[in-house]
Amino acid sequence: EILSVLCLVILIAPVALVPSMFALVSMLRMNRRLQPAILETKRLDGTLASPVYTLFADVLAGLPVIRTSGLQQLWVDMQLRHLDAYSRATFLYHACTRFFALRLGALSNVVLGSTALAVVLLGETDV
């Protein structure tokens, strides 16, 4: 999608070739650096979600036994530990994706601004 937009911009305003190439190289570098972190945090998020669901299913299956033995607080504490680990991984994953989106948005704004400036400055010449 990004490549098609870049091609369209270059066809309409050839002045945008230099900023577009800069943006393409920058996006590829950012992708190469941030993609492994995003994939690893997504894997961690998925791995830590399983114990939360398993423990919840176990609690529902053995609820009468847990209540009669008076171990409710133990199960609540265990569930909270699992939820805490899962929520930290989820927060980390969302922080990584938001950071990546923020950087891409800033890069797009730089390309747009530099292209607009070049078009205005070269407005009277044949582009």
Shape: rod-shaped
Question: Could you state the order of secondary-structure elements as H and E?
Answer: HHHH
Distance between the termini: 25 Å
- Sheet-strand content, in percent, reads under 5%
Keywords:
127 residues; mainly alpha; 4 helices; rod-shaped
Describe the structure.
Helix content is 89%, strand content 0%. With 127 residues, the protein is an all-alpha fold. Helix 2 (17-61) packs antiparallel against helix 4. It is rod-shaped and about 85 Å long. The model has no long low-confidence stretch (mean pLDDT 84).
Outline:
The protein is mostly helical and 127 residues long. It is built from four helices and no strands.
Write the layout of secondary structure elements.
Blueprint: H1 2-12, H2 17-61, H3 63-69, H4 72-121
